[in-house]
């Protein structure tokens, strides 16, 4: 079903969560997972390679280290192959161009939770992909995944109609 999965990664918490979800899906379907990093085209490839060695996370990890960790985690979860790819240009345009040249079965992206006004002014990569990509797009919301039914952490819901009358 999902032989090829593309996930966008920019180092943010939202993108890390998207990679986590994409890795789980890739593992379940034995998919090829492509982790796409988009760099501004003005930087050039040499600067982008050097930038991959500069710490970008709170704990001092570099992009190269994070990509390596994500690759190993996805492979351990059962992904068939994990391919990092660096694209250059505007994020949405670069991802759509990549998808046109390399069709995917699923795209996974994180959501930054922009307000409607901010989304109107600066745009949203996730909204742009949902509207323009030719394959399904999964937008991963911030925060931990909701508990599954039957999970001990799941909220207990009362059954039957609410009458407001206590026994």
- CATH superfamily descriptor: HUPs
In total, how many domains does the architecture comprise?
Answer: 1
| Cα radius of gyration in angstroms | 19 Å
The average pLDDT value, as a whole number, equals 81
Q: Assess the beta-strand content as a share of residues.
A: 15-25%
List how many beta strands DSSP finds. 5
The helix count comes to 6
Q: Assign a percent range to the helix content.
A: 25-40%
Structural class: alpha/beta
Strands of the biggest beta sheet: in what spatial order? Answer: 3-2-1-4-5
Order of SSEs, N→C? EHEHHEHEHHE
- What is the terminal separation in angstroms? 51 Å
Q: What gross morphology would you assign?
A: globular
CATH class: Alpha Beta
Which topology does CATH recognise? Rossmann fold
> Runs with pLDDT <50, length 5+?
117-122, 156-167
Q: Give me the CATH architecture, please.
A: 3-Layer(aba) Sandwich
Report the sheet with the most strands, covering strand number, pairing sense and barrel closure.
5 strands, parallel
């Amino acid at each position: 079903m999902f032989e090829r999965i593309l996930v966008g990664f920019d180092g943010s918490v939202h993108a890390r969560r998207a990679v986590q979800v994409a890795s789980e899906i890739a593992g379940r379907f034995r998919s090829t997972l492509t982790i796409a990093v988009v760099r501004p085209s003005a930087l050039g490839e040499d600067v982008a390679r050097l930038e991959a060695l500069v710490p970008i996370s709170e704990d001092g990890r570099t992009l190269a280290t994070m990509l390596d960790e994500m690759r190993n985690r996805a492979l351990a979860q059962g992904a068939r192959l994990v391919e990092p790819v660096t694209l250059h240009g505007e994020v949405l345009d670069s991802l759509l161009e990549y998808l046109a040249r390399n069709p995917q079965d699923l795209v996974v992206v994180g959501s930054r939770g922009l307000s409607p006004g901010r989304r109107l002014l600066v745009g949203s990569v996730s909204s742009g992909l949902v509207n323009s990509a030719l394959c399904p797009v999964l937008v991963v919301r911030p925060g931990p995944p909701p508990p599954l039914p039957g999970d001990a952490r799941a909220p207990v819901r009362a059954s039957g109609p609410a009458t407001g009358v206590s026994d």
